[in-house]
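Data deposition worksheet. Section B asks for the primary sequence of the deposited chain exactly as it was used as input, without tags or linkers unless they were present during the calculation. Section C holds the resulting structure in token form. Section D is free text for depositor observations; keep each observation to a single sentence. Incomplete worksheets are returned to the depositor.
Section A, Depositor: J.P.
Section B:
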Amino acid sequence: MVKPSKVLEKIKKRVVEPVVEEPIIEEAEEENVEENEENEEEEEEEENEVTKESTENNNNNIDNKKDQSIYTKKRVLFTSTRGIGSKYRHLMADLISLIPHSKKEDKVDDRKTLSLINETCEMKSCNYAILFDVRKGKDCYLWMAKTPLGPTVKFHITNVHTLDELQMTGNCLKGSRPFLHFDKSFDGEVHLQIIKELITQIYSTPKGHVKSKPFFDHVFSFFYQDGRIWFRNYQISDQEFKKESLLTEIGPRMIMHIDKIFSDGFGGSVLYSNPNFVSPNNSRLDQKLSKANKYIKRKYQKGKAEERQKVAFIEPSEVDSIFDN
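Section C:
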């Protein structure tokens, strides 16, 4: 027989245990739920931060790739007009060999439709254009333009000497990237700053270009003097037994006289016009007029001398003819 006291004790335990243990379990469960919620919130915040950082990095990488693609895809279109002479044709070939990110295009037929070069650049995927505009077989105008929005600079080039003509001792590898050196005077005036920026964008070879070499061994120098820009190309070579670098001229040479700056690609409004620029036609006309004036002056002086001789004529006196008989 089981004692009733033991049965009562068991019943009491069954009744008392849930009353005592239930609140403890609930509090523990609430604490666990709160901790789990806090952990979930922290994890969500960390995930959001990681996603933000990853998106920012991806955006930066995309921007860098875009920037690099812009520079690596930079191309310069070279073209000329009909009637270009041998000297300027060799000069254009020398510049194309020195600029690896260049493309050559057929000659332009009509000078009145230079704005069509913008469409040609778009078809050839070119960002810049250089045009050799030769007139009368003597005068060469060099157009440098950023297509299609501009600006465009028009130069008159003189004193041209090509690589074959100079035969300098300097040399550089084909496709190597150049340094660009500008005179201090380019920072003084606004139109010179525009020209400096345009020349920098055209002549600087982009890093990582397919046809370029990953080092520098020559320098393009631009000097502003007497209202003109003097262009020189030098090789950078190290002297033996010395730490100093030596500059040896390679060529070509040319002098660029600034004529005008336009707002658009090969057209638009005139942003700057050089008041000191004299066109080659006017300079030749002045030379002819000076020669004609010399001839007119000489004829005038000769006529004046004849008049003076007539006035200065002395008639023979009667005394001289006394002893003739």
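Section D:
The first helix runs from residue 4 to 72.
The radius of gyration is 43 Å.
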